[in-house]
Design a protein that fits this description.
Blueprint (H helix, E strand, L loop, with lengths): L1 E2 L4 H11 L8 E4 L11 E4 L6 H9 L3 E4 L6 H4 L2 H21 L5 E7 L26 H19 L4 E7 L1 E3 L6 H5 L4 E5 L5 E2 L1 E3 H13 L4 E5 L5 E2 H8 L2 E5 L5 H10 L6 H9 L6 H5 L9 H12 L7 H16 L5 H4 L1
Length: about 350
């Protein structure tokens, strides 16, 4: 059972699992049927915030439940209050239904490295054993931490059920739409003056691969999932060919309100702190215990996103390459030709 198939990753995971020879049956659950379909998977309509999810689990008797219905942005839910209800209340209802079930033997939860928060005193690399939310302040950071707390409590109550928590770095790719990807598509990108945060990314195909890997294998535990390398914001903006607007802070109501009203990006408090301070996570456990190696590094994942969606920027990659070629030609031209070249 894949819970949360109305959104892109949930739908694609249900579709992929439905064609896997190792899987007999896949049920996709959400309030509304996904617009792009879920392949050969069956669809069951249920509101995760209510007892509906319990009735679906009781009726379909899944052996594995994949919880994908944790919303990172307010716009996905229609506001902060519905977002918190879906994330926290919905998770509580789902876990209660799994706890009552005698068929469920595995739970996989798609979480986020956002649980660690972001701040000026954060460590260079967060490990899985660090207390989630140490520097988190609110919003989605708090939701993610609460969700994981409930999942760990569930694991103690039902030790017979294998529980896997995947803390994924920000996901980008040619088709997925996230608050971070839309930020990099702004015509003029606001940045925090004097800050150049570093961060890791996960390609959307690696995201689906690691979710499938954890679903079909036996890997209980908590795992950071991220590309092996880093980008800093200034490098990413140059690669995307975007113009920047340095501001004293990104956390003003003017910046966030303008972006939300124009539908360009959802600049909530968690996003502001991430784009101000960045975040890094240790992925040793992902490689050694989860036995997963991403096909894309952070830079490769970002470049694939840029090629698919950001190539028309004012300083698009092709324009940058053309300018570089022109500059090289100018510098290599004989002295007598400088005037004609200019």
């Amino acid at each position: 059972m894949v819970v949360g198939v109305a959104r892109h990753l949930g739908a694609r995971l249900a579709e992929r699992l439905s064609t896997d020879a190792a899987v007999d049956r896949v049920i996709g659950v959400d309030m509304v049927r996904p617009a792009d379909g879920i392949g050969e998977a069956e669809f069951a309509s249920a509101d995760i915030r209510t007892s509906d999810i319990g009735r679906v689990i009781e009726r379909t008797r899944p052996d594995t439940v994949v919880h994908m219905n944790i919303l990172a942005t307010r716009s996905d839910a229609g506001g902060r209050s519905p977002q918190k209800e879906i994330n926290v209340i919905g998770t509580m209802q789902l876990l209660a239904a799994c706890q009552r079930s005698d068929s469920v033997c595995k739970l996989v939860v798609k979480s986020s490295t956002t649980v660690y928060g972001a701040g000026p005193n954060a460590p260079a690399l967060f490990t899985e054993d660090m207390v989630p939310g140490t520097v988190a302040r609110g919003g989605y950071e708090k939701d993610a931490s609460e969700v994981e707390g409930y999942v760990r409590g569930f694991s103690r109550r039902r030790p017979d059920i294998d529980v896997t928590i995947l803390r994924l770095a920000n996901v980008v790719g040619p088709t997925i739409r996230t608050a971070l990807s839309e930020y990099f598509l702004l015509p003029v990108v606001p940045i925090a003056l004097g800050r150049d945060p570093r961060f890791q990314l996960v390609h959307e195909q690696d995201c689906l691969d690691v979710l499938r890997h954890a679903t079909l294998g036996d890997y209980p535990g908590i795992f950071n999932v991220a590309g092996p390398d880093f980008l800093v914001l200034s490098q990413a903006l140059r690669r995307a060919g975007r113009m920047v607007l340095p501001l004293p802070t990104l956390g003003t109501p003017l910046v966030g309100g303008l972006m939300r009203r124009t539908g360009l990006a959802d600049m909530d408090s968690a996003q502001v702190r991430f784009l101000t301070y960045g975040r890094g996570v240790d992925t040793t456990r992902m490689r050694e215990q989860l036995q997963f190696e991403p096909a894309f590094g952070t830079v490769a994942a970002f470049d694939d996103f840029v090629q698919a969606r950001a190539g028309c920027g004012w300083l698009g990659p092709e324009r940058i390459r053309s300018a570089e070629r022109g500059l090289r030609d100018l510098l290599s031209a004989p002295a007598g030709r400088e005037e004609s070249v200019s």
